[in-house]
Amino acid sequence: MANLAAVVGIGQTKYMTKRLDVSIAGLVREAAVNALQDADLTWDDIDAVILGKAPDMFEGVIMPETYLTDALGCNGKPMLRVHTAGSVGGSTALVAASHVQSGMFKRVLTVSFEKQSESNAMWALSNPQPFSTHLNAGAGGYFAPIIREYMRRSNAPYDVGIKVAVKDRLHGARNPLAHLQKPDITMQEVEESFMLWDPIRFLEACPSSDGACAMIIANEELADKASKKPAWIRGVAMRSEPTMYAGRDEVNPQAGRDCAADVYKQAGITNPRKDLDCAEVYVPFSWYEPMWLENLGFAPEGEGWKLTMEGATSLDEGGDIPWNCSGGVLSSNAIGASGMIRFAEAARQVRGDAGDHQVEGAKLALGHAYGGGAQFYAMWVVGSEKP
Amino acid sequence: MKEIAIVGFQQSDSVSDAGAVNEVEMIMPVLSRVFQQVGINNAQDVGFVCSGSCDYLQGAAFAFVAGVDALGAVPPIKESHVEMDAAWALYESILKIRMGHADSALIYGFGKSSPGELPIVMSQQLDPYYLAPLWVDSISLAALQARLMLDQGLITEGDMAEVVSRSRRNAMNNPHAQLAGDVAPDDVLAQEMYLSPLRKADICPVSDGASAMIIATVEKAKEWGMPYAIISGIDHCIETHNLGMRDLTDSVSTRTAAKRAGMDAGKVDVAELYAPFSHQEIILTRALGLADDTLINPSGGVLAGNLMMASGLSRIGEVFNRIVSGEVQCGIAHATSGPCLQHNLVTVLEKA
Amino acid sequence: MSEEQEVVTVVKAPVYLKYNFTAGAAPARFLAQIKKGVLTGQRCPKCSAVYVPPRGSCGGCGVATEEEVVLSNKATVQSFTIVYIPIPNNPIQPPYIIANVVPDGANVSFIHLMSECVNEDVHIGARVEAVWKPKEEWAFAMDNIRYYRPIDEPNVPVDQIGKLPVTGLEG
Amino acid sequence: MSQPEVLNQAFELGYTYTRSTGPVIGRFLTELRNRNIVGIKASDGRVVVPPMEYDPNTAEALSEFVEVGQQGEIVSFAWVKEPREAHPMDVPFAWAMIKLDGADVPMIHCVAAVSEDAVATGARVQAVWADETIGYITDIRCFELV
């Protein structure tokens, strides 16, 4: 049985296209210091640091944990660097939690970051290795056909993605840290935005952001004494599957379904839509909301889009299960941090500390991240009460 | 806290150029041997999988993703990845077992360093404003460290040559070694300087290969019925990145990690130290306070072959092998990452 | 303010690393065949699935694929996208279609270009065939197949995509 | 089973990164462009060159700049008789840890010298500036023996 652990501090930077005023260390540091302040702690109170980032090539710094040691007050302490795919921020939060849940640490700091402006993240990786047997058409070139297959299967109307794009930007407008601030966005504006990879329009895709996110995770004894309300970790799960295998369901990947089932079981959730108060789910392309609604069991297969269209996932429409109240990845995408932001925003909700994007009385929230070819998953459920 | 048992370890040969093999082709043979050793089918039979690798070694982003193709990860598995070295993947796996979310784990590390110019590649792990733009390679940094020790009279070139000689001779009993032979210290000293004060022999070779380990709770190890060794302690520690602010002649973080791992210097039959340069073995031996009768790097250590991202895990595996063979009762293994031993991990192993 | 007095806030850091890349055994075998104008896959000894392009293992089973299988030039569209942005370093101009195609005889799809088609007519389940570059241009490269184009054959039912034998619809 | 050929090909993985410096590194590089060298005072009073943003021992942000000399003393060195293509010099040279006058912590840079014998621990060196300084660490082209 895992030891109890809780989030006792959260720090983020403002997300924006270019943070030209800080070094890489300065960016990471800012989130970490914000988390320490939030928890009313100092560097001496931290027993270990768990850093998440992937891949190194976005900043061109190999194993950046070695250079970031001093910015993170880690000299003389354990520093563990997590390097999974797009799910890295979520994986990192889970590894950080495991430091405490294993009983081996009392209180740890976890940080993840992205300084995409140092490179051009999408194309920094586009220089193909020789003898590459795959055409490189960017992330959208990979995901758009999968979205198209979802549309075929579900018979969803063409504007579901448009609706999500608007909804998440309206959420983002409530969150001062969100990169995109579009309080006046309309369905028409999204529909008329440039088509990138049909059916993905420009405004249905996430932006490129610089930013960092940090959390402090403590054991039960310290969390009980925390200066602010802790977010208790009620379940943690991760799953991976190969990029490609015969019969793989890319639209509704088994790894996502299994991961959700695992985390729900730990948290005592039998009906996620009813039992959870909100969710922060990794949705980099708008259509992934209905797809993940089904994958995560909020709706039966083929019907996720109905929740979206009914407004069930919208804070502004008073939906019963708001998704991505922070604005989600569609409003801020600091890639290496995006997963951790989901986890942290879920924790903010159950701490009652989410400002204008707070879901009234949220007691139980899901944080979700995925990566690679939708094959790596990390999830946690956090609650306002101890399990 | 749950006791952790190592039940299996396998490594590939260290080769200077693995040639036409990609990541998955490099990993699969080692995994299939470790599965066979423990008597299981694939990664489905363990509770967690964690690996260590570095994209920049072969120059491909997310190279580790291909590694999943070697696991048999259908149905999906619990899996994670680190850089540093797979020794830290072991650490992450132990956390997972101790929190009760797995009863066993597969850990593997792999590196194909031959395609690039490794010492130059590693220069890009340095401070990106002050050092990386100068392209200070990893061998040169180690040479600065060695000179500090020589100048301060902490070591002699003869001491360094002794380390190399012992490595080459020990490696003659290591079928996976890349460099082995009956080399006397004087033979080493007769070599010309390569990057003064280092000779080529003072520097570990560039190697391709992989290694893999399976760990479990003691209950699970007993269920499998395999001989096992106990990890009685494991800890790691990092130091400042500023080389000028560290005492490079010592390894404070290694000592800290060893202390926190519960190492008792008087009770170490064997020590496998991840020392990519001969003088670093001396630094580590002293930092750990190892006694004269401790057998140091009987495998030849990484001077005999350095599988970047797997060598740290392999050190632990080498000690495991000696414990389960009955050769020794207890030992320690050390892993490192970062320039001039910045980041160090110490594992204490005991006979079950 | 003169340039001299401005504070440095941004620097350019060139990080260029050279590698001598060696293809893996499975890709090398695949590329050697495609250089001869033959599209091949590799079969999993455990589950019999045929992978193209082969990467060295069956991801599902985690075992090496050894047996080489010659695949058909004909294939089925599993899904696709119409791309409106250029691919860096690629001469092809948008809009263009990239499709996930499954060659007859294989069980997984790969992404490739489609051409000689009306973009709006492309659909899931459509039958296509490989159009090869002239023989003298063949290299160790996937793009020896210049693109896929539609052929006049009945659609493949969705539940049959990825399951056709090398003989295609007739099989 | 067809025989795999060994397919080799050279390729370059590269990108010119745009690095924002933040105020501390920016100040140092600005001074370099003006052919000055500044360090920063650590919490224990030691002067660190190049200036670190954060103190390794207390983790505090550092901000007290100190101008240091352009001459200093070699604390350690390594003789590169076969420079690599990426190295800043294409003839044999030394990497050195150099404690500049007024600094307490050595920095790493390259030292031009005719031969290894000419270099020694304790030797005095002086910064040699690039013809054009742009606000980058390579504005110090190298150090040379005094």
Structure description:
By secondary structure, chain A is an alpha/beta fold. Chain A contains 14 helices and eleven strands. In chain A, strands 3-2-4-7-1-8-11-10-9 form a nine-stranded mixed beta sheet. Chain A has a two-stranded antiparallel ribbon with strand order 5-6. Chain B has about 350 residues and is α/β, with parallel strands linked by helices. In chain B, the strands form two sheets. In chain B, strands 3-2-4-7-1-8-12-11-9-10 form a ten-stranded mixed beta sheet, with helices on both faces. Chain C starts with 9 loop residues before the first strand and ends in a 21-residue tail after the last strand. Chain C is mainly beta. Chain C has two domains: about 25-70, no CATH class; about 70-165, OB fold (Dihydrolipoamide Acetyltransferase, E2P) (Beta Barrel). Chain C is built from one helix and eleven strands, in the order βαββββββββββ. In chain C, the strands form three sheets. Chain C has a five-stranded antiparallel beta sheet with strand order 9-8-7-10-11, with no helix packed on it. Chain D is mainly beta. The radius of gyration of chain D is 19 Å and the shape is globular. Helix content of chain D is about 10%, strand content about 40%. The mean pLDDT of chain D is about 95. Chains A and C meet through helix 5 and strand 5 of A and strand 1, helix 1, strand 3, strand 7 and strand 8 of C.
Reconstruct the topology from this structure.
The complex is a heterotetramer of chains A (387), B (352), C (171) and D (146).
Chain B: E1 4-11, H1 23-38, E2 48-52, H2 55-58, H3 63-67, E3 79-82, H4 86-98, E4 104-112, H5 118-121, H6 138-151, H7 157-171, H8 185-189, E5 193-196, E6 198-199, E7 208-217, H9 218-224, E8 229-238, H10 252-260, E9 270-272, H11 278-287, E10 295-296, H12 311-324, E11 330-337, E12 343-351
Parallel strand pairs in B: 2-3, 2-4, 9-10, 9-11
Antiparallel strand pairs in B: 1-7, 1-8, 4-7, 5-6, 8-12, 11-12
Chain C: E1 10-22, H1 25-35, E2 40-43, E3 50-51, E4 57-58, E5 63-64, E6 67-70, E7 74-83, E8 96-103, E9 110-114, E10 127-132, E11 145-150
Antiparallel strand pairs in C: 2-3, 2-6, 4-5, 7-8, 7-10, 8-9, 10-11
Chain D: E1 8-20, H1 22-33, E2 37-41, E3 47-48, E4 65-68, E5 71-80, E6 93-100, E7 107-112, E8 124-129, E9 140-145
Parallel strand pairs in D: 7-9
Antiparallel strand pairs in D: 2-3, 2-4, 5-6, 5-8, 6-7, 8-9
